[in-house]
Each structure stands twice: as C-alpha cells, then as structure tokens.
Amino acid sequence: MPRLDARLKLVAAEIRGKIHADIGSDHGHLLAALLSASRIERGIAVENKPQPHQNSSATLERLNAEVRLGDGMDVIEENEIDSLSICGMGGQSIVRILSEHPNRLPQQIVLQPNKAIDSVRQWARDNGYWLTDEKCTGIKRRFEVLVFRRSGSSPDPVYQKLDRAGLDESMGLMFGPWFLLRKDEQLLQRLAEEQRYLQARPNLTETSQARLETIRQLLTSGHFLRR
Q1: Does residue 1 surpass a pLDDT of 80?
Q2: Tell me: the pLDDT tens digits for 162-171?
Q3: DSSP string computed for 94-128
Q4: How many independent structural domains does the chain possess?
Q5: Domain boundary pick from 126, 151, 176
Q6: SS3 85
Q7: Of 125, 151, 177, which residue constitutes the final position of a domain?
C-alpha cells in the first residue's frame, strides 16, 4: 500500500463510503490507501493528462478502481459517487470544477486547496454545503483540509458560532471558522508571522492591505487570549 504524506493522511481520515472519486489523483495513492483500509468499496480516479492517467492506472491496477481521462466532473455521472476529494490544486481551479456540474456533486466533499482557500469556503457558503471540519498539517508546511457536507439552503451554523464569538464572517472565510473558534495556536503563530511580513513590505496591493488589516483586528481583539 502506498504511504501517504501528512496532508493526504488528513484527507483519508475523513472519507468513508461506497464509491469515492478523487480528481487530480496523480499517482492514485489516496484511492489505493482508502481501498486497502476498506474505507471505500470502489474508487474512481480522474486525470486530465495522459501521464498522470498512466501513473494512477499502474497504482490501481489490481484494486477495485478505475481511472478516467477527462476534466473534473465531466466524466462523473449524476448520483454515481458518495464522496469526492480534490487535493493539491489552487482554490480557484477547485471552485471551477465544483461549479461546472453541481448536479453531479455528492453529499460529502473533502478538499485540500493550495491557495485561495477563502474562495473555496465562499463557494460552499453560497452553494448549500456546510463546513463540518477543518484540519491542518504543521506550520512550516501548512496544508489545510476542509470537509463539507451538503445541507440544502440553510445557513452554515459555523458562521453563526463565529458571530456569537464576536468575529466577522469575512475573518472565517479568510482564515477558517473552525480554526478561529478553536483558537488554533498554529494559526495564531502564522498570523503573527504574516503580519510582520506584510508590515515590512512597501506598497502593498489593496488586497494585501485588507488582509493585513483583518490580521491586525484579530490579533488585537483578544480573541486568542480568551479561554
């Protein structure tokens, strides 16, 4: 069984079901691990380039899985899968994939965006998916894993909890509502480091300036000191 890195171990721990699809599976290691541990019954890997398709096919050859060549959810049928993962892509690419065939999305989605993570949280907020958990690897190589479950049109309760804690929804979208509610020490350290970095940079863009101001508000609010 292939060994998973820290981020994929976090992803694998959240997945249980019958049929799971992994988009951009690369070498098929996540599906191989899930099948070997009997966390899923069948896997579907989706690759959009021939070489990754060959890599995943070799890994999954003797397992109850298939590898499809195509773009995102284009090669997944409606009601075909119980859960879905997309790991190692930028947030905007993930949002594009999720938005193109909303009728084909399953109940559970586990995502590991490399950047623009706020856009993924915003997509879920706007499309009836609750953010049920957030986890991360270490500070130096921090990868965030987001777990979503379809809930219909009702508001995500985690943002209501955030409001009761005296924090803005925008802070939750930017830095993770569950991380903030848990007063995550790794997040606190990362915010302090990012604040120093941004303060030292001349001529910040409007986006970076807004991010810096949000970090300042969080660090001066006393939120991380309250227990």
Answers
A1: no
A2: 999 999 999 9
A3: HHHHHHH-GGG--SEEEEEESS-HHHHHHHHHHTT
A4: 2
A5: 151
A6: strand
A7: 151
Give the pLDDT confidence of 123-170 residue by residue, as tens digits: 999 999 999 999 999 767 889 999 999 997 788 999 999 999 999 999
Task: Output helix, strand, coil percentages for the chain, rounded to the nearest 5.
Answer: 45, 20, 30
- 114, 198: one domain: no
Record the pTM.
Answer: 0.94
**For 41, what's the count of Cα atoms within 13 Å in the CB-facing half-sphere?**
5
Does residue 107 sit in the same domain as residue 11?
A: yes
Range of the domain at 180: 155-227
Residue 90, CA distances (Å) to 94, 117, 130, 223 in order: 6, 8, 20, 29
CATH label of the domain that carries residue 134: 3.40.50.150
